[in-house]
Design brief:
Number of helices of chain A: 7
Strand order of the largest sheet of chain A: 7-4-6-5-9-8
Number of strands of chain A: 28
Structural class of chain A: alpha/beta
Largest interface: A-B, 95 and 95 residues
Distance between the termini of chain A: 37 Å
Radius of gyration of chain A: 31 Å
Oligomer: homodimer
Strand content of chain A: 25-35%
């Protein structure tokens, strides 16, 4: 029952993750790739658009034929046909003095280099159109390959795929993409006092809250949650369950064991697994001090605090950066930050990085929101439900005065 | 081919959505409810925690027995037993002068009202413990119902369910929740020039980009995308396809028809559908002016511009608020906003609300990021891929100077 751990700093903790390699890549269909992370740079193998297209309804022309025309002195061009949508414009070829009717998106005929908007034309007779505003070469035209020429980089490795990115891929005929595999995260709750959430706990027992919360956090971070349920405090059984769970996962989250005895227990289980290397036995953060990290090859094992409020902070600060590292995003928090004004004095302790749950209240006149701490014992969920994010207070700071501008990490 | 539409303002457009009712609700399992919107207020029907729990490893005591003790004058208490994790603490009852060994999360014995941390105790003999720091009643204890008492509101209607919210529900034994149904959005691309993204386009044709992009936008907004593919420019067929698609959906997104002729075509199809009411024939926004909105009961039909860059802006500004209205979040954009500094002068046109694609560049010393416009013809995708968000310029503003602070709507 020794409480004197060698604590690691939060930044040193996160720095450990740069030694973990991103996961392998897999090919997924573009239709299911939103939010996935590209594992390779993508290069266009063809031209987009594949041909020179009109951006207007009007007449495809040789621009030189319109030079100098005006409302008083129109250019008269012979209309040699219409380019129906979806038909090949290149089937027509303009000689000097000729034009072709064209629609937005239509393919330009041969020798055409510009389009006159229909608003600046008037039919002259059945075969002739009068143009009364000149166009420059290239006007109202998107050239073949102007968007993406063959060989152009489309998206960098590590890009998070957005709707517009997927649209480009569709336009270029790319129907599947190499993305980093989603990290598989095994979740295990420990404690003889736990029953599954769908059961009525007998006296002395409570429902498992952490499995649900951690699974949702994992999915929110892009991982695949593998919920293994509850394991009692039996060493041999725990060792077997952890070994089996990690077999099929990249990460094991073992939560529970906020007490010193249970923490030791988790540590002994992790240490007993062949190939495991113990990396962290506690971190100078509040809440979350009793966090444990072990490594097995490129896999990671976390011992998380049993109180869900603490486990959530540890997840955002430490598990999240590792999942992002596995996903090809780098070992970063990836949480949005807003600047807020402290609504009251917030005390803190020297030597710990404090993550204070805060609720944000918008202010009028465009001022930054007010951050009000939502205090409560770490075993309570209620403050966490009322909070919008976490306000970090550095380890060398005794607290923040009221009215101080400070960044707040928003819950995703 | 009449280009003189009566344009509606963007704010009047969005205001139309308050007449649409949120969708019905459905029960979903808590394990799949992350990101869903609560359709009813949830009230606790039991106490959390269900019993008074220790928050520390130590000894459960009657606080009064410790009053006045100190390192020099310890309180000696008789240890009548240990409360094993998961066992009922209430099986024991403390008489004055008695204590019970307890662990973090354990249930307090009867008559105990506080816990002394093990650090402030020392075994005296086999049956006796010496306490050398007094505790107040309630210290190191979470009372039964302290987190949620029976009858307490847990979460409001309209709450977007986060991991910690789901954790609370698990703790209270709530395994399924009433949430608003996800809006079903039928997506249809029109144009004789289109081929599916997995085909090689023959001369004059291009691949369908909008279906992929819009489907991803819909899913990103929490909707269910129903991709119906490509429909050529045939009135009767279009009418039949639109009718069938809307049958099974809450919203129809018909994209294509950037040209005046095609816009008229979409409008005629929408107007020909029985029960349809035409609401919008163009909006004073750039890009996106030729947007069409019709209504059929509580369902909506959008005619979106054919250029994906315009369609994306219209989606974020108008489709997104309607999907949020259906989902119970209200007709709001729901896009995060950051303040940025314009990196150069950005011209705009009076009479249109301009949504300028911008790329954000972080600045040192904590200054707001620089917003650089990413220009390009609206038929190009490349500028959209390079952009981080949209910078709105009001309809009565001629443009922004360089170095001006302005809010930027971030792509989700």
């Amino acid at each position: 029952m020794n409480d004197f751990f060698k604590l690691i700093s939060p930044s040193d903790f996160v720095a450990l993750f740069t030694d973990f390699a991103p996961l392998e890549s897999e090919m997924v269909a573009v239709g299911t790739a939103r939010g996935r992370i590209l594992a390779e740079e993508l290069v266009s193998s063809e031209a987009l658009p594949p041909f020179s297209r009109s951006t207007m309804d009007g007449y495809a022309v040789r621009a030189a034929d319109t030079f100098g025309c005006s409302e008083s002195e129109t250019a008269l061009l012979t209309v040699i046909g219409e380019i129906a949508m979806g038909a090949s414009g290149q089937a027509l070829s303009l000689r000097p003095g000729q034009a072709a009717r064209i629609w937005t998106g239509g393919e330009l005929p041969q020798k055409a280099d510009a389009v006159v908007m229909v608003e600046y034309t008037q039919p002259f007779d059945e075969e002739t159109v009068a143009i009364f505003r000149p166009v420059a070469p290239g006007e109202n035209v998107i050239r073949s390959g102007e968007d993406y020429a063959p060989g152009t980089a489309i998206l960098d490795r590590g890009s998070c795929l957005r709707p517009q990115d997927l649209g480009v891929l569709s336009g270029l005929g790319i129907t599947s993409v190499p993305v980093y595999c989603r990290p598989r995260v095994a979740i295990l709750s420990t404690g003889d006092e736990l029953v599954p959430a769908d059961q009525t706990p007998p006296p002395g027992k409570i429902r498992d809250i952490n499995s649900t919360t951690l699974a949702a956090l994992v999915e929110e971070t892009g991982g695949i949650a593998l919920v293994h349920g509850i394991c009692g405090d039996d060493f041999d059984r725990m060792l077997a369950v952890c070994t089996e769970a990690l077999n099929d996962a990249d990460v094991l989250l073992l939560s529970g064991g906020s007490s010193v005895g249970q923490r030791d227990f988790t540590q002994r289980v992790f240490a007993a697994m062949p190939g495991n290397q113990m990396l962290v036995h506690g971190v100078s953060v509040r809440p979350g001090k009793p966090t444990i990290l072990a490594r097995q090859g490129n896999k990671a094992l976390f011992g998380l605090p049993g109180h869900v409020a603490s486990a959530l902070v540890v997840f955002h600060c430490f598990v999240r950066p590792l999942l992002r590292q596995y996903s090809g995003l780098g070992a970063t928090l990836g949480l949005r930050t807003v600047k807020a004004i402290t609504a009251q004095q917030i005390p803190s302790v020297i030597g710990r990085e404090d993550y204070v749950r805060v609720r944000l209240t918008p202010q009028d006149n465009g001022a930054p929101p007010l951050a009000t701490p939502v205090y409560g014992k770490s075993g309570l969920l209620n403050p966490l439900v009322r909070a919008d994010g976490l306000l970090p207070i550095g380890r060398d700071v005794e607290g923040l005065d009221k009215g101080v501008m400070s960044p707040v990490l928003l819950f995703p």
